[in-house]
Amino acid sequence: MRLGLAANKLHHNEENAALFRWLRACESSIRELDLGLHAVGRTHDAIAAAGMLRGHAGLKRYPYGRDGGLMKLVAEVVGMPGDERTLDGAIYFIDPVDPSSIFPEAIALKRQCVIHAKPFISTVASARDFIEVERIHAGLAPDRGADALHALESQTLALIAHDAMKPAMLAFAAENFDVLSRFAQRIGTGTTSQRLNEMAWSRGWPQGTPWVARYLSGPMGGDAQIADLVLERRCQRAIFFEDPHVARQHEADIQLLERAVTTVTDEAVCITSPAVAKRWADAVRLRTK
Known about the structure:
Largest sheet: 5 strands, parallel
Structural class: alpha/beta
Strand content: 5-15%
Distance between the termini: 25 Å
């Protein structure tokens, strides 16, 4: 497996920056999994200067962002001729107030990951969670350092889907009702919440008791309400099925939720496609066993 890797300046400019917190937690797993990391220039240089991943053959250096490094990662998420230039997803540690986080290539990196059903990982918590999922699927022993990420019974989960993705969210929730029901609380926006509740009642959830606590619809401010819970550390995980093919009138509200997640980078996990969510749910079951 190969992933693109980039980090905004805030996340690699000092010893305890996000990039290094992730590597300290996951370096041994990265080596065990033989994970390829195609790192944009400055991110690669920061890793080398810190003496991390030394000798790891999977670490590749790409040009600086200003020289097209991030653009090359976008192309490789889409897939270039030759298997060695196809990425399986991307880790991009985002500083939400860094202007480069909204450059076209940064937005395109996420969009192409979503279109091609590949993981787009923008927080330390999401990156640690991804590594643990891959450990489990590889048949490796669980990393006890990731136990807190899998303490679902103490967490709140947000379930959100754009209109075109609502059927996929319902199908995912029905297929993984056992896993999602383990969370202490589930929350969601507008119509998605109502349809999920109807599905849960049909599965035996007590009639009239919401399986998903219903917030406002996205256009009316539901995304902003959930963003506030994320910032207050009262929502630890979001499964957000995005439709990248349509113009969204409430784009600013959607970005608000995404920025909230990256603001609390060590504490919020976000999953953005059905394929990635299914792989996570399967790993939860395997890890429990």
